[in-house]
Design a protein that fits this description.
Layout: E1 5-12, E2 15-27, E3 33-36, H1 37-42, E4 49-54, E5 60-72, E6 75-84, E7 91-93, H2 94-99, E8 102-104, E9 111-113
Parallel strand pairs: 2-7, 3-6
Antiparallel strand pairs: 1-2, 1-5, 4-5, 5-6, 8-9
Length: 120
């Protein structure tokens, strides 16, 4: 299977004029979204806590988190954003996708909009 990417804009909820845009890997195995810490700080986002996350190799890492506005494919959702290391590949997690009713088509590996967001 190929990788699916989408352009995402992260906005600071305290000042929506401050934003950072990047090409994010769509990862349905990730719950939350991840962006470079330096990019998040450049728009005034500061950590509001930290959590332990399991990486693809099974190891665990403690990373800072904050809330922010996540905008992609013409939709906006508020969600948890993980402060990643320097120069990581940004990740768009499944929570943001499902919140706006978008999923990955397993055949084409493209994002598709559902007729309605799930509320069940």
């Amino acid at each position: 299977m190929g990788a699916t990417h989408v352009t995402v804009t992260i906005r600071n909820p305290a000042d929506l004029e401050k934003s950072w845009e990047g090409l994010f890997l769509v990862d349905t195995g990730a719950v939350d979204s991840l962006a470079p810490a330096n990019a998040l700080r450049s728009i005034g986002l500061e950590p509001k806590g930290s959590r332990i996350f399991e990486l693809a190799d099974g190891s665990e890492v403690k990373l800072d988190v904050a809330g922010g506005q996540i905008e992609f494919m013409g939709d906006v959702v508020w969600g948890t954003i993980i402060f990643g290391p320097e120069n990581p590949e940004p990740i768009l997690g499944v929570t943001a996708l499902e919140s706006v009713g978008i999923e990955i088509d397993p055949r084409s590996q493209k994002l598709k909009r559902l007729p309605a967001a799930r509320l069940k």
